[in-house]
Amino acid sequence: MRPRRETYHAGLSRALVVSAAVELLQAGGLGGFSVRRLASDLGVDSMALYKHVRNKDDLLGAAMRHVFVDVRPHEEGEWWEQVRAVYVQHRRVIRSHPWVLSVIQAHSVQSSEPWGGVEEILALLTKHLGPEGAARWARLLAAYTNGFLLTEPDLVHLSDEPQLGPDLPRVAQAMHRNADTGEVDFAHGLEVLISAMRAEQPLRPVT
Q1: Domain residue spans in the chain?
Q2: What would the pLDDT profile of 139-150 be if each residue is shown by its tens digit?
Q3: Is 119 in contact with 65 (CB distance < 8 Å)?
Q4: How far apart are CA 6 and CA 83, in angstroms?
Q5: Between the chain's N and C termini, which has fewer beta carbons within 10 Å?
Q6: Cβ(83)–Cβ(129) below 8 Å
Q7: First vs last Cα of the chain: how many Å apart?
Q8: Rounded distance, CA 137 to CA 155, Å?
Q9: Residue 73's closest CA among 25, 12, 116?
């Protein structure tokens, strides 16, 4: 257990509360997270935190925004290269902060905090694919990225040496092979989607 940080009380702020929440989530995951536990770690009572966050949902949303702050288009390269970079970074963020995957699976965040980057990627896609195409491809790319993460053994605690019977040799072989090929396989699948997305682009950018 980390020591209580009594010095936080006088200078408590939303940014400090959110940063401490990310630390707690990183240490114990979503299952080990609560506002009461966070308050204890900060050396204050729970009511002190509610001066800076509305509720647990607001806090989780702010924590997600904190870790996803750079997952947005950066106007470097062609538009599809920017899109590719966003989802490569999306995967890297979740690999570094696996609790995010639990929050996404639990559908426990209703606040608007994490959606700024999504708004920006939709704006970029809309410019080239129109509103309907943007909505479809943002959904497909996010679903692919999050779904792929659910297959990565170190994130979902799958065995890299599966204990399977002799009647399932192909399953065992595939699972053993996939234990070490996440980076390459993700890049391959993302490139397939990017190519299909580019094929839908009108001859002229959508205005």
Answers
A1: 6-53, 69-199
A2: 999 999 999 999
A3: no
A4: 43
A5: C
A6: no
A7: 55
A8: 25
A9: 116
| DSSP, res 200 | T
CA distance 73 to 11: 34
Return the CATH superfamily for domain 6-53: Homeodomain-like (1.10.10.60)
Predicted confidence (pLDDT) at residue 152 exceeds the cutoff of 50: yes
- Sign of the torsion angle spanned by Cα atoms 56, 62, 66, 71: positive
Asked whether the predicted pLDDT for residue 166 surpasses 80, the reply is yes
Residue type, 132: E
Query: Which DSSP letter does residue 157 get?
Result: T
Q: Are 177 and 207 in contact (CB under 8 A)?
A: no
CA-nearest of 175, 200, 199, 27 to 97 is 27
* Structural fold of domain 69-199: Tetracycline Repressor; domain 2 (1.10.357)
pTM, two decimals, is 0.84
Q: How far apart are CA 121 and CA 26, in angstroms?
A: 26
Q: How many helices (H) and strands (E) does the chain have?
A: 10, 0
**Residue 77 backbone class (left: φ over 0; alpha: ψ -120 to 50; beta: rest):** left
Pairwise CA distance, residues 190 & 165, whole Å: 33
DSSP 148-162: HHTT-HHHHT--SS-
Measured in whole angstroms, how far is the alpha carbon of residue 178 from the centre of its chain? 21
d(CA 27, CA 146): 21
